[in-house]
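Entry type: protein chain
Record version: 2
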Amino acid sequence: ILKEYEELVYIPISSGLSGSCSTATAMAQDDDYEGKVFVVDNGRVSTPMKQSVLDAIELLNEGCSAKEIKNRLEDAKGKMGIFVAVDDLKYLKKGGRVTPAAAALGAVLNIKPVLRTVGENFDAVDKVRGSKRAISKMLDYTEEYVNKLLENNDTSKIRIGAAGTFEKEEDANSWLEQVKERFPNIPDIYYDPLSLVVGVHTGPEAAGIGVSLILREE
């Protein structure tokens, strides 16, 4: 890429979730790349990461340098949140996120975890019985987070991405409508499939929400 362009901005997923960011950061310090390759570690994955890419393009169009883009994106590191409700614990077990005993107990008791990340690891913020209650709890936690952002930001600056690994299109549409109903004052709400790097751990029929602040002016 540097044979054709002077600078490169690379936006990997959060360093708290993958080693890709640290590897790229180390490589960017090589004599051939230092001052030319800028690795962004803004703690994002999935739909908020997509928002970072859109912001980066707009910042570039505004005349920002690669270094300025990196700094602007990293300044917003703590201003995003992802919430996920998992339907089946066996995929978290396979990924080493929960123990086999916990997965077996969860299956027997129909326990569904609600996971959250604000840039580091995914942590369980709640464990409830039944998928409907898990969805309700996830919406509650998301609303708390959105209200916190609204203390210092207008609704036009907040973007919400409903996401999921639904096998049926109607289920994805239904989830999007639930999110829109919960946040009627947020103008920008859309749906994206959960990225594979997240979906491989959640399995099918998982629902998620990504909340982020828009850096660019629209």
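Comment: DSSP finds eight helices and eight strands in the chain.
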